[in-house]
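Input set for joint prediction.
Command: fold jointly, output tokens.
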Amino acid sequence: MSAPAAPRPAPAAPGAGPPGEPAGAPRAPVGRSWRAFAAPAGVLVAGAAWMLYVENSGLDAIERRSLAPHYVWEKTWEHVQLTAVSTLAVLAVALPLGILLSRAWARPGTPIVLAVADIGQSAPTIGVVVLLAVAFGIGFWTTVVALVAYGVLPALRNTMVGLQQVDPALTDAGRGIGMSPAAVLARVELPLASPVILAGIRTTLVLMVGTASIASFVSSGGLGDLITTGVTTQRTPVLLTGCVLIALLALLVDWLGGTAARLLAPKGL
Amino acid sequence: MSFWEYLGDRRELLVFETWQHASMVFQTVLAALVIGVAAGIAVHRSERLATLATGAAGVAFTVPSLALLGLLITPLGLGVAPSVTALTLYSLLPIVRNTVVGLTGVDRTLVEAARGIGMTRAAVLLRIELPLAWPVILTGVRVATQLAMGVGAIAAYVSGPGLGEQIFSGLARLGGANALNMTLAGTLGIVLLALLFDGCFVVVGRLTTPRGIRD
Amino acid sequence: MTDTAPETPPGPAPAPPPDSARSSGAADGEDRRGIRLIEVTKRYPGQRAPAVDRVSLTIPGGEIVVLLGPSGSGKTTLMRLINRLIEPTSGTIVVAGRDALGLDPTELRRHIGYVIQNAGLFPHMTVAANIGLVPRMLKWDRRRTAARVDELLELVDLDPGAFRGRYPRELSGGQQQRVGVARALAADPPALLMDEPFGAVDPITREHLQDSLLRLQEELRKTIVFVTHDIDEALKLGDRIAILGEGSRIAQYGTPQEILLDPADAYVERFAGGGRATRPLRFCRVGDVPLRAVPEAAPGDDAAAVRERIGAAGTGFAVVLDEARRPLRWLFSEDLAGVSGPVGERGSPSAEPLRTRDTLQQALERLIQIDRECVPVVGARGAYQGTVTLATLQKALREMRERARTRRPDTARTVDTARTVDTAAGTEET
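tokens >
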């Protein structure tokens, strides 16, 4: 996979994007705080309503066992943990690497790194998870490693694109008034690149929620368990509950990412 | 058995599954291209519909592939049907979205100029808008293909065709003799296919993008 | 509207009555190629005020008519009604003798050239493909189209061999615009609509493009509607200028001279005066132009003698001076009818006199301000030197024009004076 030259994160990687959102553009204006919480509240209500409906829809013994509230809650929590840990790990890898690769001296190496990351991206997650499980045994960290391998690319790419699109005149201005390279990075480049970088993080978050359902195959838990259980026992309510909860979790996480992008992006951009 | 020995031993099966995988991805993406571009054309003139379509595509995308495959078992059973349906649906999302983005991204003054010199609506669409939006649409198709490759691997979970078979067989024999070989063969096979397809896209992109708008 | 000769004494130029073209010029070929808008209105749903409100305009065949107005005056809207990129709510539009609203819009547009800002060339097509689009749509065969493309490229001063196969992005802005004009001319349409075509190129290129357009027009005599917000461009290119106000209201429709020298109202005055167009007036002094000679009189002069003097001069009025030759009053022949003895205090007081150091611009302003035809001019110590009238200013401008024409015989265009003086003044400034 060659690295597309176009620095347009939104149309270039639409599949990986959060719902209908141009990268870097916060969804709604800040203010009217009650409105900002309407979306997550809606998601939580929808989740609760679904659970109420399922629990009261005449379940058989198998279904009741798989859909016991404490069990569902445990699976949800595992899912959140997987998502959170792997997102943090992705950021820990992608941000420094992205910054490093966008330094002037490293730019010749950029296409190589992106090509490697592209190849990594083209490996099917399920294959990577199983490979890691074969090599290192099953468990939480195996899944995290696979998720990180999968999620690093969007975050890395957005970090680099964000930094590269900063107007050189502004970095020159920073240097011109006597800022050290580190100060230019911290005070000029990163703030200006932050909307794009944050959009990348948001994309990563949503990607992680969906991909974490694969953890179920290597016994790392998560809501994927409900799906596999549903499929193997042919119990549609269980399967549906898994799907609905993952989708709702993704929406919730997308909202979180959007809110973070809005709050963390410097005002005036 | 070493990996190379495994490859030699199962050559026929592997070639067959690779072919199946490639053919499944190719056909579903092609179907998604036709449906997605048609849908994109249908909605792009209305801002409301366009926003709705891209928004819906985004929300649908939060449904994990595993869940989608699972959901399709009930109406479609196991095997090819749910796999192909899931792959097509997934491929649709980036294609619809990029078609809309590409078409709405065409400079309005060019469309005006085209109408101004007396082109019919159909001619404007076919000769101006689609060619100018094509690079963006093609990017969408590329993303869709990559997605379909990965989802195609998971499709083996619902007994779909393709290289996912190898991975799930490996998973089933975890700790067994050939588990590593099987998983490796499946994974690497898909990586190679993905790279091959992507290379094709570079070529197709160069051949189908007019020189005047090539980067 | 019949052709208004520049010499005609300026007066308010009314918008032409809708039927004038039909009555005066339906027979001659020029107006067969003209464009007429009759009571055209465009309303957008949800907007109270119409974007175009009952506009009537006659564009004579073979002329360049400039729609001039500030942004938001609806000049582009008005133009796009002609090729029905915008459909009028009511009214009639006649293009080349045919009811435009009765034609298929795409068919209509293929017979009206259309040039827009930045040329609007299709980036994915070669220059030849861009130019050949309309001929191909009109089902010309390949060979004829190719021949036409080469012919047009030569017409717009581009070497066919070098430019035929290029893509728009490989051309400079000026070259793109030339190709844009060539594309508009491809099917030899009788009429051309140009929407700020030279708005986005640098001043020097713009000048070249304007000159080429005028040269082309000499040859082709197309009916051209040209939209701009640049008064200089309007004066240079327009055979006629329509100055648009809100709701595409036509504030004035007339020749450049009429617009310059006799603005119909304060709006036109502000708009025409706000640009650089009136610069020749600003850089020429009252003392530098020949003034109007008017019979002189003193308060003690005999009325009959003064009447005779007025009659001999044929001016209809005299100026009354005091002992120091300072102008006091205007004395019209009516004031003296049946009067005998000294003229005394008769007549109407003259306005604050102009000084010879004042510019023609100031003279024009004074004339407009006092609402009278003439202003006295005084030299040192307030002594009367002569009189300025609108005709004086017109004549002065005309003479400047003549001088410019002898200097640049190839561009014998009416307003080039303005530009020449303009440029000279600009050089002085810098």
